[in-house]
Amino acid sequence: MTEGLATQASKEKQGKKARNDFSEEYSGKNVTIVLGAGNPGVLRGRVEVASRYWVKVSIGQRVVYVNKAWIVSIEPVA
User: Fold this and answer.
1) Which CATH number describes the domain made up of 21-76?
2) Cα separation of 64 and 55, whole Å?
């Protein structure tokens, strides 16, 4: 995660506003991800890491990489 903060700081120095996608709020947590558009469905798992365009989700023994463009919502699981 410190990598993302360094990138954000360098963009702010250049006068560009870094976008916040709230990745730090759901990283490392169990979530329900609702997918939409051409591939509707629901994923339930643990978010391992999120990058600018992708979210890495562990579902049991599987690892799934989800493009953020397909995500409709991410809800934490209690």
Assistant:
1) 2.30.30.100
2) 8
Amino acid at 60: G
Among all chains, which residue has been given the structure tokens 């709020």?
25
State pTM to two decimals.
0.71
**pLDDT tens track, the chain, 78 positions:** 455 556 666 666 666 676 777 888 889 999 999 999 777 899 999 999 999 999 999 999 999 999 999 999 999 997
Q: What angle do CA 35, 54, 22 make, to 5 degrees?
A: 85
- Tell me the three state secondary structure of residue 40: coil
Q: What is the dihedral of CA 49, 12, 14, 52, to 10 degrees?
A: 20
Could you tell me which residues come within 8 angstroms of residue 42 by beta carbon, excluding any fewer than 6 positions away? 32, 33, 34, 35
